[in-house]
Every structure is written in structure tokens, then in C-alpha cells.
Amino acid sequence: MSHVAAANAHSARYVSAEWQTRVHLAAVLRLLSHFGMADGLRTHASARVPEAPDTFLTNPSHLMFHEVTASSLLKFSTGGEVLDAPEGITALNAHITHGALYAARRDANCIIHTHTEAGVAVSCLADGILPFNHWALEFYDRVARHTYEGVTLDRAERQRLIYDLGRHDVLLLNNHGLTTLGRSIPEAFKRMHNLEKVCRTQLSILASGSRIIPLRPDVCEKTAHQYAAQHDALLTQPLQADVEWQALIRLAEQHTPGFDH
């Protein structure tokens, strides 16, 4: 069977909007791997199913990010019930934590969680993300924090996680890692990609030991609003109009082809 025929055979199982979501989520996982944001089998990205908002897709725990394809994604209800997964295949605790976040945040359509060296390092800092530069200002006064309680399996902690997140789209999990939410898959990925750059840059700045040029709070808030306006504008346009996301899809196709099967 040709690659095109195989892709068509897989996509025939799903309505077109779900298949597009599967393809774009698989691309996210490939891109996370490409940009060095994977951690073996230990983290997840997920996306809400458009036609069934009480369900979501996520990567299976037995595949590395660079191995995930659109058809290999698992489907769960927001309550954590398995809806579409091979017997014996799971998503560790992602179906529990991500499901709880989707149930609480109806505006979220994609959630990404990472354990990168830079992200974990910054999550250990009492001051968190610092407004040192243009990249960092996207997140100025817009980052929630959650105290580390161990592996998130306790239902009571999930409620505290939801409370700490509030209406923010970025969650710094203390001593653990990073989580971003997006109203779309591109928004969640670009938010995580930028956040990772911010963490790496912040560590480099702090390691230099040099005096840092301070930024005025009003400039920080103005820039954060500008970033937010850019995100809002993209949501009113067709996905094809997001030239940055289209470029990222081409990058995934070039370096890790086959994710759309």
C-alpha cells in the first residue's frame, strides 16, 4: 500500500475535522522532538476533538515523540475514560490531568507539558520567568505556579492544579516543568516554543553574572498586550493564513515525514 493510500485508509476512520486535529497534534509531537523538548516517554501533548468537546487526543506512552503518527494517538473522555486505544496501551497520567484541565477550561483546545533542562531549571527558581527581554515579555505577569506534590495522581491535587492555573495559559510546575494551553494547536505550540527559548535565554543571562538592563513595568505590560493581540488576530483567520504554523508544518514534513499517517 502506498503512503497516500495508507493515510487515506487511516483518515477514513475519522471525520475530517478530527483527522486534521490528529495530523496537527502529531506534527506538534514531532516538532517538540525536533526542537529538543522531548523527555523520553514521560511527557504529553493533547488536543480537544472538535466535534466532541468532552473528548481529547494524546500521545501513547509507548512511543517516542518522533514516532507518533496521527493514527497512533489515543482518545479519552475528559473524565479519563478510554475511548479509542489499543488494549494495554495507555498515556500514563496524562488522560487524568489533561482531562481535568479540559473540563475546567472550555477555552483550551490544546495542552502541552514538557520536562526540558531549561524549563525544569527555571521552575526551580523562586522568581520564575523574569522580564529580561522581548521574548520574555509575552509572559509578563501571565504565568501561574503550582507547588510540586509528586506525580499527579491524586484527584485532590488535580483540583488544586486547576485552581492555581486559573485563567492563565502558562503554568510553571514548581521543581517539575512547563505547561502551556492554547485556544488552538498552533497557539499552544508556539507558546511553548517561545517559553522554552525564554527559559534557555534566562539561564544564559543569569550565568553571565553581568548587570542586567531593567525594563519599565509599563513597557513590559504594553509588549505583553501586543503579543496577546497577535494571538487573537490569528484565531480569527483560517489556519492556512498562519504562515508561521505552515512553516513549522513544512519543517516537520522535511525532518520527520510520516506523521500524517
Write structural notes for this entry:
The protein has 261 residues and is an alpha+beta fold. It has a single domain (3-255), classed as L-fuculose-1-phosphate Aldolase (3-Layer(aba) Sandwich), CATH 3.40.225.10. The protein is built from eight helices and eight strands. Strands 4-3-2-1-5-8-7-6 form an eight-stranded mixed β-sheet, sandwiched between helices. Strand 1 and strand 2 (52-58) form a beta hairpin. The protein is globular. The relative contact order is 0.15. Mean pLDDT is 92; it is low at 1-7.
SSE topology:
Blueprint: H1 3-11, H2 16-34, E1 45-49, E2 52-58, E3 74-77, E4 82-84, H3 94-104, E5 110-114, H4 117-123, E6 144-146, H5 155-165, E7 170-173, E8 177-182, H6 185-208, H7 217-235, H8 243-255
Parallel strand pairs: 6-7
Antiparallel strand pairs: 1-2, 1-5, 2-3, 3-4, 5-8, 7-8
Portion of residues within helices: 40-55%
Largest sheet: 8 strands, mixed
CATH topology: L-fuculose-1-phosphate Aldolase
Rg calc: 18 Å
Level-1 CATH class name: Alpha Beta
Annotation field: number of helices: 8
Task: Report the CATH architecture.
Answer: 3-Layer(aba) Sandwich
Number of strands: 8
Please write the string of helix (H) and strand (E) elements.
Answer: HHEEEEHEHEHEEHHH
How many angstroms does the end-to-end distance come to? Answer: 12 Å
Q: Averaged pLDDT, please?
A: 92
The SS-based structural class is alpha+beta
